[in-house]
Write a structure and sequence with these properties.
Helices cover about 10% and strands about 40% of the residues. It is mainly beta and about 190 residues long. It folds into two domains: about 10-100, OB fold (Dihydrolipoamide Acetyltransferase, E2P); about 105-185, OB fold (Dihydrolipoamide Acetyltransferase, E2P) (Beta Barrel), CATH 2.40.50.
C-alpha cells in the first residue's frame, strides 16, 4: 500500500514538514484531466507519480478556463501554496490560484447592481449567454433576460463576438458569479 510510512520514509517526512499556506516551487511534469502534477524543487521523487505536488483543476486559476493546458504547460515553473498532505496518495495538494489575486473580487468592488456594462458575447449555452465584461470576468445573461420578446434559443438574439450592453442584476461573491440582463439595458419595450 502506498501510504505506508515505512515504505517511503523520506517522502513521508518531507510531506509532514509542510505547513498550510507555505509557498512551494517546482516544475509541471504532467497534465491530466483531473489535475496537474508538479515535481517540487525541494522534495524527493514520488515512487509512482510524475511529481509529489498535485494541483486539482479548480485550484489552477480564478478565471474560468476550458482545459488545464490553457493555464499551465509541461515544463513550466510554478510557485504554489501548500494546501494539505494527501496521506493516501502521498502527495502535496497545491493551489496555484491562491498565489494570484482574485480578479473577480476586485472587479466586484468596483461595480453595483443596476449598473450598465459593455461586453462581448463569449459563449452560447442552452440557458443563456456568457458575456465578458472585463479581462477574465464573465457574467451570465439568462435566456429570459436576453430580449423583451421571448427567444427560443440564445442564437435567436445574439452570436459569439457580438458587443452588447448589459445591466448587473446580481453579484454573487461567494460563488464568484455575475448575473446580467440585456433586456433591462435596452428600451425596446417602450
Amino acid at each position: 500500500m502506498m501510504g505506508e510510512r515505512s515504505e517511503n520514509p523520506e517522502l513521508w517526512a518531507f510531506l509532514e514538514s509542510l505547513h498550510y499556506g507555505e509557498l512551494l516551487s517546482g516544475t509541471v511534469t504532467a497534465i491530466e484531466r483531473y489535475g496537474v502534477f508538479v515535481a517540487l524543487d525541494d522534495g524527493p521523487d514520488h515512487p509512482v507519480f510524475p511529481g509529489v505536488g498535485f494541483i486539482t483543476v479548480p485550484e489552477l486559476s480564478w478565471p474560468r478556463f476550458e482545459a488545464a493546458s490553457d493555464v499551465v504547460q509541461i515544463g513550466q515553473r510554478v510557485s504554489c501554496e501548500f494546501l494539505q498532505f494527501d496521506t493516501w496518495n502521498l502527495e502535496a495538494r497545491l493551489s496555484l490560484r491562491a498565489t494570484q489575486p482574485d480578479t473577480f473580487q476586485a472587479f466586484a468592488d468596483g461595480i453595483a447592481v443596476g449598473q450598465k456594462l459593455h461586453g462581448q458575447v463569449t459563449k452560447l449555452v442552452p440557458f443563456g449567454v456568457f458575456v465578458q465584461v472585463a479581462d477574465g470576468i464573465e457574467g451570465l445573461v439568462h435566456l429570459r433576460e436576453l430580449t423583451w420578446t421571448p427567444a427560443q434559443t440564445p442564437s435567436d438574439a445574439v452570436q459569439v463576438g457580438d458587443e452588447v450592453t448589459v445591466v448587473v442584476t446580481e453579484i454573487d461573491r461567494e460563488r464568484r458569479r455575475l448575473a446580467l440582463s440585456r433586456r433591462q439595458a435596452s428600451s425596446e419595450h417602450q
